[in-house]
Structure formats: C-alpha cells, structure tokens
Design a protein that fits this description.
Helix 7 links the parallel strand 9 and strand 10. It is globular and about 50 Å long. It has 261 residues and is of the alpha/beta class. The strands form 2 sheets. The chain has a 7-stranded parallel sheet with strand order 1-10-9-6-2-3-5. Helix content is 34%, strand content 17%. It has a single domain (8-205), classed as Rossmann fold.
C-alpha cells in the first residue's frame, strides 16, 4: 500500500482520473479483453468522474470496452429515486461517457431475493474476469463501500444493516433526515474490493484524517475496514493534506519520499 498526497481534493481527483485512464489505455494496448472497473458513489469521486467525462469528450479516452460494477445500493429505494446509486451514477458519470449500457452493473436493491442478487453479482464479477481496478472512497469511521466497522475482512457481496452514524452522514442527501435514509443496503465485501488487481481509494478532507491514521498506522482490523489495504500488493490511497493531518510526521515524510523517488 502507498499514499499519494496532493495539496487538495481537486488535485487528488485529477490524479485518480489519470490513473484510471492510463490503466484502461494500457490494457487496451495489450489485449482485446474488456477492462473491468469497480466504482463508488458519494461526493468524494465526483471530481474524478468529471475529469473522466472531460477525457472522453475530448477524445482522449473511451469506455466502449469497459465493464463496470458499482460498490453498493440501498435496499428498497426505487431506481428512479434521485438518491439511488443508479441515478447517481448516470447523473455523475455514465450519461457523459461512451460506455455500453449492457456493460453497467449496479446491485438491485429491490430484488425479490436479496441474497440471490448478491451471489449473482459475485458470479458476474468472476465471469467478467475480476476487477482490473477498483475505485473507492472511505467513510469517516474507516469503512469502504458499506462495510461498516467490524465487517469481516473476508466478506463478500451481501445485505448489510447501516449504522446510525452512516445514516446521519448520508442524511444530507435526504433532506437532512437520517430516518429517510434506508436502513439496509447491498454492498460488495471487503474481500471483493481487495480482490481487484489494483485498488485506488480516495480520502479527502479533515473528517477522513482519523480513518486514514487508523488504516495506515494502526493494525489491520475489522474495526477499520480500510486497513485491509495494508495487505494489498497494489493498493493506493489518494489523499489531500487535510486528510493526512493525524499521521505521524515520520509516516508523512516516508510516503512523500517514496512518491518522489
């Protein structure tokens, strides 16, 4: 695992977009197989998605041979609801790029059998060849996707009950009312994310500082599911100066030196 530290979220978002674009182009140059990309939602990746859209519109990048799988979706929220992750992804990314509709995969939170939906999702990821790259964000308590604290690091796609803290954080998307946030969600597991050949996690702002400290300097633990990145051979956390505020000076200097070497 390594940290890429940028001055602010805008610079970090650009770095991540370029990393994704470079990976897509590199695979296209050596293989006709599709690039399999994991994606996240929330406010954190919006800058990265905006840059990817710009690249596509400028003719610098194509998603024609990219297959995507999203991290999660609320249970019981209609696909048309403005805060469903189906709606978010089309609004923030898919409607602005040249991806084929049949290559978009998002969990169905209204499936008749939610457990079967989760199992089918894992099977579809495997059938696609596994993730080439997974782009994720991190919650204030260190969770990735909806893998709340104490989620097993060996977890796979499943139904999960959201904590009160997560519902309160996400309430800003639901008129400020935590009770309006669905209580359950479908989520890929920690092991699903970490099975990707490359994982890029975005962590911006001072509110992510404690989670970043726990993930980088603390033990690998189900208390902070982001800490599973410690065991990934090609895991990258892209962060800004505000997010590294609780790291030891020696840790900060180490990661800056590694990047500049």
């Amino acid at each position: 695992m390594k940290l890429i530290i940028r001055n602010n979220a805008a610079e970090g978002s650009l770095w991540a977009a370029r990393r994704i674009a470079d990976a897509i182009r590199a695979k296209a140059a050596r293989s006709n197989d599709p690039f399999v990309l994991g994606l996240c939602t929330g406010s954190t990746p919006i800058g990265t998605y905006a840059e990817l859209i710009r690249m596509v519109k400028a003719g610098e990048l194509s998603f024609r041979n990219v297959i995507t799988f999203n991290m999660d979706e609320y249970v019981g929220l209609s696909v048309e609801h403005p805060e469903s992750y189906h709606s978010f992804m089309h609004r923030q990314l898919f409607d602005g790029i040249d991806i084929l509709p049949e290559n978009i995969h998002i969990l169905d939170g209204n499936a008749a059998d939610l457990d079967a939906e989760c199992a089918a999702y894992e099977a579809a990821i495997e059938a696609a060849g596994g993730f080439d790259l997974f782009l994720g964000g991190v919650g204030e308590d260190g969770h990735i996707a909806f893998n709340e604290p104490f989620s097993p690091l060996c977890s796979r796609t499943r139904v999960i009950t959201l904590t009160r803290d997560t519902r309160e954080v996400n309430a800003r998307f639901f008129g400020g009312d935590p009770e309006a946030v669905p209580a359950r969600a479908l989520t890929v597991g920690v092991a699903t994310v970490l099975s990707a050949r490359e994982v890029v996690i975005l962590a911006f702002g001072s509110r992510k500082a404690r989670a970043l400290r726990d993930a980088v300097e603390g033990p690998m633990s189900h208390y902070c599911t982001l800490s599973g990145m410690q065991n990934h051979a090609d895991g990258i956390i892209v962060c800004d100066e505000a997010a590294v505020g609780e790291l030891k000076v020696s840790s900060y200097r180490y990661f800056k030196a590694i990047e500049e070497a």
